């Protein structure tokens, strides 16, 4: 994920919920710390990635992040990860070429923490679909 995309990941919900008096904006530094390998202790035994969903004109329609914790992923019969930071606009139908719901699942299946992969910068990849 580029620096501009990382900024958009933080700024998108600010625009999305601008008219909602109940929206409480998290601190930008708190969000940034989640995706910072030096500040987030779960990177020691896990990984995470984030995506932006954009339309054909380059406007952001949504965002989502997926998380894998190697220590807990296999404590259930089915290997389990997590998903968060989900924000999406309902103003436009997303393009059919990309599904934000499918992206985290596909990433988690490919990651396979039970095969003990090396952690290699996934949090800054991700990107736009």
Give a brief rundown of this model.
InterPro entries: BcerS-like (IPR039968). With 129 residues, the protein is α+β, with helices and mostly antiparallel strands.
Draw up the topology in text:
Blueprint (H helix, E strand, L loop, with lengths): L2 H14 L11 H7 L11 E9 L5 E10 L12 E7 L13 H10 L15 E2 L1
Parallel strand pairs: 1-4
Antiparallel strand pairs: 1-2, 2-3
Mind explaining what this structure looks like?
The structure is a single chain. With 129 residues, the protein is α+β, with helices and mostly antiparallel strands. The protein has three helices and four strands. It has helices at 3-16, 28-34, 102-111; strands spanning 46-54, 60-69, 82-88, 127-128.
Q: What is the H-and-E element order?
A: HHEEEHE
Domain count, please report it. 1
Structural class: alpha+beta
Describe the main β-sheet briefly: 4 strands, mixed
Terminal CA distance: 11 Å
How are the strands ordered across the major sheet?
A: 3-2-1-4
Number of strands: 4
Helix content: 10-25%
Shape: globular
pLDDT average, as an integer?
76
* SS field, number of helical segments: 3
Task: Kindly report the oligomeric state of this protein.
Answer: single chain
The rounded Rg comes to 15 Å
Unreliable spans: 96-101, 111-125
Strand content: 15-25%
């Amino acid at each position: 994920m580029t620096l501009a995309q990382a900024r958009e990941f933080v700024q998108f919900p600010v625009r999305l919920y601008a008219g909602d008096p109940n929206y409480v904006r998290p601190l930008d530094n708190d969000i940034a710390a989640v995706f910072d390998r030096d500040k987030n202790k779960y990177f020691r035994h896990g990984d995470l990635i984030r995506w932006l969903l954009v339309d054909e004109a380059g406007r952001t329609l949504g965002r989502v992040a997926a998380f894998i914790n190697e220590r807990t992923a296999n404590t259930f019969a089915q290997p389990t990860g997590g998903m968060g930071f989900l924000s999406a606009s309902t103003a436009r139908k997303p393009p059919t070429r990309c599904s934000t719901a499918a992206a985290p699942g596909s990433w988690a299946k490919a990651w396979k923490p039970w095969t003990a992969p090396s952690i290699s910068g996934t949090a800054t990849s991700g990107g736009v679909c």
